[in-house]
């Protein structure tokens, strides 16, 4: 039977730009190499047991799931909410959805039940695919009640009646039968345009309501190419990935993705021993983790006098990384390996990148002096511009919006890795995007403030919404906090504004590096006040409050909830 028009193979005449085509290509090149490895508990001897898919097996299993969806009459462009933890099912399912032209809606379960339900209602999925707990929660809490007309169980459902419907295994069986009977051509690859939605990825909601960024197949393609070129990632490498969404890039890059034994929604709680065990078992060349994970694992490795010689690079993202954290973790690596900190957001990633060698050897000293955090040179395919700060929408681009070189302003970006819209949120899209008809493109407003230095490097100065606007001056959080974070007794600081009858007052919240008694607090407060007096932009910060543990986001355990701190500080400030 001749291949159907909606089952073309990537690379053939008339082929689609389906991102899943990369998996099939790699499966042809290295069929027997492990694609995904997941822990399965310990054996009798106490050794961790693992299950795996080779690239050929992952390609075939995702084919079966895609064929099952097509045989079930699921149309191209259908949205499917996915609530499946990292594992073999997760990888096969997401690539199967890509192959079938179905749009996975990926929502971090760690953001909380209320936000999760809101995201589900906004995305309006027709399918809901999840483990038993997720299906029960959906039924009890009404997630997607208006739009979901079919649910599919991943894994075992137990004896609950509401879980006795269609399962992933049923979908696989039907898909294999459809392929064997010639009803769906293998390899399965529905033809899609590059500008068609491939997935909806929700932002963490740490700086506002979670929003669904619409990823197209072309954006995924551009991201894969950008990461490959930026870090010289080559097929055959092994990736130890602690963040599930980034793990999806590994098979597309030809890397084996090793999922460690940990709760990915709680990186700050990871057991270092579990990561070291995975390193010892597989010798990964690449590791992706949040700054909170590095902060926990690095000191444990140094204390145990460990080395991680197989790692060629470590990539950390999600929040600014402290030089102390980078310095500690870098001690575990064998040169020339280093820790890279790509800058970006769910809506645009990566934008720029810098390595720990440059940070520790140069830019950290400027950060300590209040110049902000250097996030490196923009990626080759991304254009970064700095415009005057404006809290309202900007409908059309004008070059007059740009600031002078070195002046702090709002960071805007354009390029093939930048998402064009938020799903179902036209107001948020209008606020975040600037049309540029003359160039035939648009610019995404990152929501950050920063500047470009005389070498073209981008410096991050904080979130636009977090700046503290005084009567005669605007204070930028990262620039001010860098001065105080240099103090050895400080773990981190957060600058907030508190409104008083006399006007807005800048308040510095301090999370100590260790527990401080009353005398030590008085000493540290005096020393911080003296540090602030040394710099023009921090001299007005007179109020200093100590906070035992800052409220932070769930996804990365690094982004500070400054709005909560501001409310707390308001109750403490006379």
Which consecutive residue ranges, at least 5 long each, have pLDDT under 50?
1-15
CATH architecture of the largest domain: 3-Layer(aba) Sandwich
Count of DSSP strands:
26
The helix content is 25-40%
**What is the CATH class designation of the largest domain?**
Alpha Beta
Domain AMP-dependent synthetase/ligase: 31-423
InterPro entries: AMP-binding_CS, AMP-dep_synth/lig_dom, ANL_N_sf, ATP-dep_AMP-bd_enzyme
Keywords: Ligase
Protein name: Fatty acid CoA ligase family protein
Keywords:
single chain, 574 residues, alpha/beta, Rossmann fold, Luciferase, domain 3, GMP Synthetase, Chain A, domain 3, 3 domains, 8-stranded antiparallel sheet, 7-stranded mixed sheet, 26 strands, 32% helix, 24% strand, globular, disordered N terminus
Give an overview in words.
Helix content is 32%, strand content 24%. By secondary structure, it is an alpha/beta fold. It folds into 3 domains: 5-38 and 50-218, Rossmann fold (3-Layer(aba) Sandwich), CATH 3.40.50; 371-463, Luciferase, domain 3 (Roll); 467-572, 2-Layer Sandwich (GMP Synthetase, Chain A, domain 3). The strands form 5 sheets. Strands 14, 15, 16, 17, 18, 19, 20 and 21 form an 8-stranded antiparallel sheet that branches. Strand 1 (34-42) and strand 2 form a beta hairpin. Helix 1 packs antiparallel against helix 2 (55-71) and helix 2 crosses helix 6.
């Amino acid at each position: 039977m001749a291949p159907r028009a909606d089952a073309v193979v990537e690379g053939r005449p008339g082929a689609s730009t389906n991102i899943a085509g990369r998996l099939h290509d790699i499966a042809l090149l290295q069929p027997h190499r492990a694609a995904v490895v997941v822990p399965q508990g310990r054996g009798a001897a106490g050794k961790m047991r693992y299950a795996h898919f080779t690239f050929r097996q992952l390609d075939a299993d995702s084919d079966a799931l895609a064929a099952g969806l097509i045989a079930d009459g699921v149309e191209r462009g259908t949205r499917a909410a996915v609530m499946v933890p990292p594992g073999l099912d997760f990888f096969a399912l997401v690539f199967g959805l890509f192959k079938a032209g179905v749009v996975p809606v990926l929502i971090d379960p760690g953001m909380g039940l209320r936000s999760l339900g809101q995201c589900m209602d906004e995305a309006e999925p027709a399918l809901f695919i999840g483990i038993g707990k997720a299906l029960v929660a959906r039924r009890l809490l009404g997630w997607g009640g208006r739009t979901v007309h079919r649910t599919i169980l991943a894994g075992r459902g137990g004896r609950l009646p509401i879980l006795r419907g269609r399962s992933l295994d049923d979908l696989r069986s039907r898909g294999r039968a459809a392929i064997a009977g010639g009803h769906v051509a293998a390899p399965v690859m529905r033809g899609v345009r590059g500008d068609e939605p491939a997935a909806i990825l929700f932002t963490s909601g740490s700086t506002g309501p979670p929003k669904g960024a619409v990823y197209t197949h072309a954006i995924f393609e551009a991201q894969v190419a950008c990461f490959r070129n930026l870090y010289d990632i080559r097929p055959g490498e092994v990736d130890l990935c602690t963040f599930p969404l980034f793990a999806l890039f590994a098979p597309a890059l030809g890397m084996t993705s090793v999922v460690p034994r940990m709760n990915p929604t709680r990186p700050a709680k990871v057991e270092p021993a579990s990561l070291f065990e995975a390193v010892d078992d597989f010798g990964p060349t690449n590791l992706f983790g949040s700054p909170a994970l590095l902060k926990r694992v690095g000191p444990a490795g140094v204390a145990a006098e460990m080395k991680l010689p197989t790692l060629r690079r470590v990539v950390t993202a999600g929040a600014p990384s402290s030089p102390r954290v980078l310095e500690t973790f870098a001690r575990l690596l064998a040169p020339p390996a280093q820790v890279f900190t790509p800058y970006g957001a769910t809506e645009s990633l990566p934008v720029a990148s810098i390595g720990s060698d440059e940070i520790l050897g140069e830019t950290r000293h400027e950060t300590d002096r209040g110049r902000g955090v250097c996030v490196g040179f923009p990626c080759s395919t991304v254009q970064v511009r700095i415009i005057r700060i404006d809290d309202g929408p900007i409908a059309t681009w004008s070059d007059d919006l740009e600031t002078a070189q070195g002046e702090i302003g709002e960071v805007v970006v354009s390029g093939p890795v930048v998402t064009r819209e938020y799903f179902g949120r036209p107001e948020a899209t209008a606020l975040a995007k600037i049309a540029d008809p003359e160039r035939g493109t648009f610019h995404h407003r990152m929501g950050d403030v920063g500047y470009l230095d005389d070498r073209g490097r981008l410096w991050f100065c904080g979130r636009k919404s977090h700046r503290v606007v005084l009567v005669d001056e605007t204070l930028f959080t990262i620039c001010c906090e860098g001065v105080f974070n240099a103090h050895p007794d400080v773990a981190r600081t957060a600058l907030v504004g508190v409104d008083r009858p006399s006007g807005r007052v800048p308040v510095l919240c301090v999370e100590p590096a260790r527990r401080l008694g009353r005398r030590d607090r008085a000493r540290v407060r005096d020393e911080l006040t003296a540090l602030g007096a040394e710099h023009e932009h921090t001299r007005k910060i007179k109020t200093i409050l100590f906070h035992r543990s800052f409220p932070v986001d769930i996804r990365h355990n690094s982004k500070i909830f400054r709005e909560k701190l501001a409310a707390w500080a308001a109750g403490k400030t006379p």
